[in-house]
Design goal:
The structure is a single chain. The longest helix has 29 residues, at 146-174. The protein has helices at residues 2-23, 41-49, 54-57, 59-63, 146-174, and strands spanning 28-37, 68-71, 81-85, 93-102, 106-113, 117-128, 131-141. The protein is elongated, with a radius of gyration of 20 Å. Strands 1-7-6-5-4-3-2 form a seven-stranded antiparallel β-sheet, with helices on one face. The chain has a single domain, classed as START domain (Alpha-D-Glucose-1,6-Bisphosphate, Chain A, domain 4). It is of the alpha+beta class. The model has no long low-confidence stretch (mean pLDDT 87).
């Protein structure tokens, strides 16, 4: 019986504590990864701007090669998009649309996934000494509720690893 009281006491402290901590956490979570890729600016830009190329370097495509993809009519640049359906629970279903494309500078995207969560993201391309610096960034609103904000704490670690793997795949592709 004493163990039950200890557990209840711990929960009585832990739950309000998490709620108070979550009040100070941001409602928007941002993931940013940067990689220097030893390839020309235009070569790297084209691999991202043409959405069918994502099949070659996307970390999520490699996680589920059986993922079903359907593309819209536009192949690249602003307005290009695709939808995916995966049996892998981590990947699920969603869509990507390029909302802006400035040649060899930046591609802005909008993703819908995780039960209609909308994220905004971008790829920035900058010339560097021996190639191209690529910045892949995504921001997601996790809401005002404690559970969403606390889950946002692990978002950078989990999605960030995918971004790192994707940028590594992109580098291997253009070498």
């Amino acid at each position: 019986m004493q163990a039950l009281f200890i557990i209840l006491g711990a929960l009585a402290v832990l739950i309000p504590g998490l709620f108070i901590v979550s009040m100070f956490l941001p409602a928007t979570v941002k993931v940013v990864r940067v990689r220097a890729i030893p390839a020309s600016l235009s070569e790297v830009f084209d691999q991202v701007n043409v959405l069918r190329n994502w099949e070659k370097w996307s970390p999520w495509q490699q996680s589920d090669p059986m993922m079903k993809l359907s593309y819209n009519d536009k192949k690249s640049g602003e307005g290009a998009g695709y939808q995916w359906i995966s049996r892998n629970r981590k990947i699920g279903r969603g869509s990507v649309t390029i909302t802006a494309s400035r040649p060899n500078k930046q591609i802005t995207i909008e993703m819908h996934f995780m039960e209609n969560k909308v994220t905004k993201g971008y790829f920035r391309f900058e010339p560097s000494g021996r190639g191209t610096h690529v910045t892949w960034s995504m921001a997601m609103d996790v809401g005002r509720y404690p559970t969403g904000k606390i889950m946002g704490l692990i978002f950078d670690r989990s999605i960030g690893k995918d971004f790192e793997r994707g940028l590594e795949n992109l580098e291997k592709l253009v070498k």
